[in-house]
Specification:
Blueprint lengths: L15 E12 L2 E7 L5 E3 L2 E3 L6 H13 L1 E18 L4 E17 L8 E6 L1 H7 L3 H14 L1
Parallel strand pairs: 1-6
Antiparallel strand pairs: 1-2, 1-4, 2-3, 2-7, 5-6
Helix pairs in contact: 2-3
């Protein structure tokens, strides 16, 4: 069973399972994050939902590009966690199944194409402190133990 971070499901509420792929993106001792303005300002690991017909790695490449403007290489799966949350942009209560990959940004292609997103480099210890959920923070901490 995948560990859960954050509050558990609310009794009586229906949740839609939503799988996603996210990256701890490490380069030169720094981590590339995305900052999302809506529905509230938040630093996040770049990534998102897996579209029908897409593999998790394909989704990771697409989402990283959309949210940061970077291409990545050598994604390696670190693990998976779950969290229960409301996603106002979809008006959806979701059980998010977050597959986390370690990958390496290799080339910027331009600014993020996803509206409201911007790319930011952070010291890994700072990244673990500022990401918006405890699961993301845990996987940044794991990457620090592996790479720092």
């Amino acid at each position: 069973m995948n560990p859960r971070f954050g509050p558990g499901p609310e009794a009586g509420r229906r949740y839609t399972r939503r799988a996603g792929a996210y990256g701890v993106l490490w380069r030169g001792g720094q981590v590339l994050l995305t900052h999302q303005l809506e529905p509230w300002p938040e630093f996040q690991l770049p990534g998102g939902g897996i579209d029908p017909g897409e593999s998790p790695v394909q989704a990771l490449h697409r989402e990283v590009y959309e949210e940061t403007g970077w291409r990545i290489a050598a994604p390696r799966r670190m693990g998976t966690f779950r969290r229960f949350t409301y996603m106002p942009e979809y008006d959806l209560w979701a059980e998010k199944v977050c597959m986390i990959y370690l990958a390496f940004p290799v080339r910027p292609l331009g600014p993020p194409t996803e509206p409201g997103h911007s790319a930011h480099w952070a010291d890994p210890y700072e990244a673990a402190e500022i990401v918006g959920n405890d699961g993301d923070a845990e996987f940044v901490a794991r990457a620090i133990r592996w790479l720092a």
